[in-house]
C-alpha cells in the first residue's frame, strides 16, 4: 500500500492496536496524527515512528471531552490542513455482574467507546471533506456483535460502534467517505487484563476458558494482526468497501 499522499489520525495510539496501526500507517508513508490519554505511551509511539523516518504529530487528549476532541482536530488542521484516514480505536473496558455497575461507570465507558467516535467524526468532517476521498475505520469488538459473559456495559458501548458504522456509511458516502468497522477477538493488549481484574482468580480462569474454547485458532491475536486489517480497510485497496463489520477474531464468530 502506498499512503504517501495521506494524512491519518489514530486514537488510542499509546499502546496496543492503536500503536500498531499508527506504526503501520507511517510505514506505508502516511503522515500520522496520534492521540491517547496516556502521555508516556503516546511519546513511545511517536519515538518509534520518528526513528523509522516517519512524520508524526502527537497530541494528548481525553476523548470523553468534546472540547479535547475539538482541540485534537484543530491541531491536525493547523499542521496538515486535511485528513484522509481516521482510525477510531480508543476504548476502555469494564466488567462484573449486572448489579455491580454504577451510572458513573456506564457514562464513562460509553463516553469513550461510543460518544467519542461520533463527535470525532463530526468535528473532523470538514477536514475529511476537504480530502475529497477519505476513510474511517472504527474499532469495535466481538463483544459488540455477540453477547459476552459479565460485559453488559462494554457490550452495549461496542454494539453502538457497530450501529454507528452502518449509519455513517450511508450519511458520508455522498462525500466520498467510506466507513468500516473491525471487531477484534481476544488480543494481547492491556484490555483483557483490565477486564479480568474485576474478578476472583477462579472466575478469571473460567472466563479465559470460555474465550479460548470458542477460538478456532486457539490463541489471542497480536495487535499487529488486527492493525493489518485496519490499515487495509483505510487504504485505497478497499475502495469499494463501506459499511462492513469485519471480525478479526481467530474464528470466534464462526460457531
Description:
This protein has 255 residues and is α/β, with parallel strands linked by helices. The protein has a single domain (7-247), classed as NAD(P)-binding Rossmann-like Domain (Rossmann fold). Helix content is 48%, strand content 14%. A 7-stranded parallel beta sheet has the order 3-2-1-4-5-6-7, sandwiched between helices. The mean pLDDT is 94.
Short description:
With 255 residues, the chain is of the alpha/beta class.
Structure class: alpha/beta
**Main β sheet profile:** 7 strands, parallel
Record the strand order, biggest sheet. 3-2-1-4-5-6-7
Total count of strands: 7
**How many structural domains can be distinguished in the coordinates?**
1
Measure the end-to-end span: 33 Å
CATH superfamily: NAD(P)-binding Rossmann-like Domain
Number of helices: 8
| The CATH top-level class label | Alpha Beta
Q: Average pLDDT, to the nearest integer?
A: 94
CATH architecture: 3-Layer(aba) Sandwich
From the 3D structure, determine the CATH topology.
Rossmann fold
- Beta-strand residue fraction: 5-15%
Radius of gyration: 17 Å
Summarize the helix and strand pattern as letters: EHEHEHEHEHEHHHE
What general form does the structure show? Answer: globular
Could you name the ranges where pLDDT drops below 50 across 5 or more consecutive residues? Answer: none
* Oligomerization state: single chain
Question: What is the helix content?
Answer: 40-55%
Amino acid at each position: 500500500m502506498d499512503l504517501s499522499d495521506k494524512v491519518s489520525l489514530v486514537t488510542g495510539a499509546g499502546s496496543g492496536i492503536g500503536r500498531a496501526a499508527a506504526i503501520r500507517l507511517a510505514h506505508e508513508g502516511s503522515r500520522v496524527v496520534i492521540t491517547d490519554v496516556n502521555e508516556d505511551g503516546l511519546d513511545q509511539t511517536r519515538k518509534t515512528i520518528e526513528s523509522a523516518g516517519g512524520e508524526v504529530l502527537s497530541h494528548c487528549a481525553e476523548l470523553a471531552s468534546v472540547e479535547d476532541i475539538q482541540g485534537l482536530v484543530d491541531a491536525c488542521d493547523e499542521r496538515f490542513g486535511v485528513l484522509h484516514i481516521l482510525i477510531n480505536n480508543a476504548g476502555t473496558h469494564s466488567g462484573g455482574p449486572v448489579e455491580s455497575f454504577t451510572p458513573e461507570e456506564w457514562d464513562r465507558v460509553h463516553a469513550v467507546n461510543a460518544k467519542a467516535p461520533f463527535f470525532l467524526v463530526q468535528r473532523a468532517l470538514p477536514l475529511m471533506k476537504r480530502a475529497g476521498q477519505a476513510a474511517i475505520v472504527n474499532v469495535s469488538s466481538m463483544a459488540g456483535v455477540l453477547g459476552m459473559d459479565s460485559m453488559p456495559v462494554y457490550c452495549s458501548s461496542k454494539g453502538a460502534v457497530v450501529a454507528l458504522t452502518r449509519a455513517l456509511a450511508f450519511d458520508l458516502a455522498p462525500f466520498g467517505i467510506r466507513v468500516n468497522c473491525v471487531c477484534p477477538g481476544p488480543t494481547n493488549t492491556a484490555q483483557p487484563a483490565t477486564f479480568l481484574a474485576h474478578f476472583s482468580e477462579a472466575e478469571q480462569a473460567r472466563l479465559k476458558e470460555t474465550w479460548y474454547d470458542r477460538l478456532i485458532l486457539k490463541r489471542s491475536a497480536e495487535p499487529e494482526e488486527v492493525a493489518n486489517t485496519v490499515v487495509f480497510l483505510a487504504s485505497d485497496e478497499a475502495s469499494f468497501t463501506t459499511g462492513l463489520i469485519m471480525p478479526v477474531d481467530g474464528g470466534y464468530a464462526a460457531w
